[in-house]
Amino acid sequence: LETKNEGTKESSCNVLLNPDIDLTLEEYIRAICTLLDVPIIEGHLTHSLYFLFNLCLEFQNVYGDDNISVL
Question: What residues contact 47, with CB distance under 8 A and at least 6 apart?
């Protein structure tokens, strides 16, 4: 993966968290959902986001607010 500013190879995590990544919002959402194995329903991306945020909240409930930082 390449960032648009540096044009250098970086690890996937650094690239996905980089604010200069050259992806549309839809592509970014799909990438995050794919990495976290969240189902993507064609035409219903908001459902995938809902599932993703619920997953994050569940992790916070299980592991506590001090251990998990959501977005």
Answer: 41
* Model confidence, pTM: 0.60
Cα→Cα distances 59→1, 22, 32, 52, 71, Å:
28, 29, 16, 11, 13
- For 27, residues 6+ apart whose C-beta sits below 8 A from its C-beta are none
Contact criterion met (CB below 8 Å) for 29 and 45: yes
Which tens digits make up the pLDDT trace of 32-60?
A: 899 888 999 888 999 999 999 998 888 88
Q: Cβ distance 60 to 53 under 8 Å?
A: no
H or E, element range at 13: helix 12-17
- Under 8 Å CB-to-CB from 58, ≥6 apart: which residues? none
CA distance 27 to 45: 11
